[in-house]
Amino acid sequence: MIEKNIEVLRKILYAVETGGQVYGNQRYDAFIGAGANTPNEKAITIGAGQWYAGEAKRLLQEIQRADPVQFKHLDTQDIEGELLHKNWSRHAISPTSAKAKCIIKIISSPVGIKSQDKLMDTQIAEYAESIAETYGNMPDTAMMECINIIHQGGAAALKRILGKTQKPYTSERIYAALCTDPADKSNNNQVGDYTTRQKKVIEMIQTYAVEGTGMTAAEAINTVIGIAEEEIGYLEKKSNRQLDSKTANAGSGNYTKYWRDIAPSYQAQPWCAGFITWCFHKAFGLAMAKKLLKHWPYVYCPDLGNKFARYANPKKGDIVIFYRNGTFAHTGIVTKVSGDRFWTIEGNTSGASGIVANGGGVCEKSYYNSQLPGTKFCRPDYSIVTNISPDNGSGDHITGGNYMFEPKMVSKGDTGLSVLLLQEILKARGFKGKDGKELKLDRDAGTNTIHALTKYQESRKGVLAADGICGEKTWRDLIAI
What we know:
- The longest helix is centred in the N-terminal third of the chain and has 26 residues.
- The protein has a five-stranded antiparallel beta sheet with strand order 7-6-5-4-8. A three-stranded antiparallel beta sheet has the order 1-2-3.
- It contains 17 helices and eight strands.
- The protein is α+β, with helices and mostly antiparallel strands.
- Helices cover 43% and strands 9% of the residues.
- The protein is globular, with a radius of gyration of 24 Å.
């Protein structure tokens, strides 16, 4: 699935789970006690995505990993201890208890909201991969219907519905099979019984999903290079904090957002290959990235070299594996070639000349191929790419006004295109930083940007909450004025 449709499906699932079946609505602070939905439920259900039992535990652990300091600050009821020692498959907490109120504070905090969105996106990607492996590839809109079913009723429900669906699978055919489900009395897991929910889901898919567009290999190459270019200047962190900021908490600990998003178990390890993996995932989604890289995740340069033909001369879009001290030991994306010279974007390197493995950031570099004996170039088959996000994979989709993307929520420490847009609007409106100066358009939501944002929100008293977070309501207000 393309990234835009993952975001759309997240909003759809939130809408039907906690948002009153209204697209874009959700309750991040939702907390439901054991047995409130059905007598069979023995544990709590929490969050916008209605994570139950072990999934509720997973969500809280995601929040704890994302910001251990903030989690500890909010955890006034030793939820950390309960994550370690309680059986969450049967962990029943009263909705009126102090523990429930503590959990609600944690999950509805800024880091809690971000973690909910991240977990839902991760689960959607996991569902999509599993469904594609079992039932084959299908259009994103059909995949979205399948994920809706498996999220609600599990793998058995999906198997039953697809068993009644005419091939090739489409969202309309799957919905038609769902509509026959209430009459099927073969078991008690009838997802089709929820007729209003299913009708809303298909309507929202038809309204908001983006159909994939064909693209050339050259366009696919430019897509992944464009994503890598956005990351130039990112510095690795000394600890597992502020991973999304390009420059904050810089150090030599090998902590990055790249391993966090792709393979957290590799955090604090050299990350040049992890950066490549992250760029491909960001550009093409998990399933396509795995096909392009021929394995997942790309961690070790010799492994990549063993899976590809190793070319002696580079082409734009190649993955270079640098040869040092008898082995392939560093990697990057080739962005340009002119004669003997080629240019790269590399993670875990520095701006110093020559090959710098295990450096401190993302940098653009260039080399002369004739001076690199043993270095080889692996060539992904970009011709297999058929779908791409409308933003070329950057993750920001802007629509409306003079902007061509839909911005994401911005809070302190965030970076990227959404932050840049926010800075441009606030600067144009005359809102200054805490230092009294015009905002710098640096794509970093630091103290000055958040100060200006809060002042804007205060100026819209009665319309916006002055919380220093630019969410959907604040974006609509900013762009509409």
